Amino acid sequence: MVYDTKQFDLGELIPEILKDTMSPVLVKNSVWSSYAQKSATKVSADPDKVRQVLINLLGNALKFTEKGGVKISTEVLKNQVKVLVTDTGRGIPSNNKRSSFISSSKLASVSSP
Q: What is the C-alpha to C-alpha distance for residues 63 and 60, in angstroms, rounded to an integer?
């Protein structure tokens, strides 16, 4: 895989992704999203790859959040930026938590109790 590493600001990228991932259906169902930036978030990475990862994380969070919301926040830790995505969705069943981080796995849809 080839990476096109550049310096960019996550603080500019994340609100753009949130705007692109929120649909009128989610807004109608009272699903909200927010971004909390704790400090400057300049990073050196491939912006297209970072964008795709964040779109996937936010997309999954929004997909499984029927009411409430999704929050994304960043935190600078020494020479790294930590990105947190939290939501009010039903969560990943305990028996699927390990496999959800394997690149080729996809969790089956589970109905909420």
A: 5
* b (16+ CB within 10 A) / e for 25-58: ebeeeebebeeebeeebebebbbeebbeebeebb
Integer Cα distance of 113 and 108 in angstroms? 15
* Token pair belonging to 67: 């009411």
pLDDT per residue over 1-30, tens digit each? 888 999 998 888 888 888 887 765 566 566
Nearest partner of 31 among 57, 73, 66, judged by Cα: 66
Q: Is 73 left (phi over 0), alpha (psi -120 to 50) or beta?
A: beta
Q: What is the DSSP letter of 36?
A: E
Q: Which fold has domain 6-100?
A: Heat Shock Protein 90 (3.30.565)
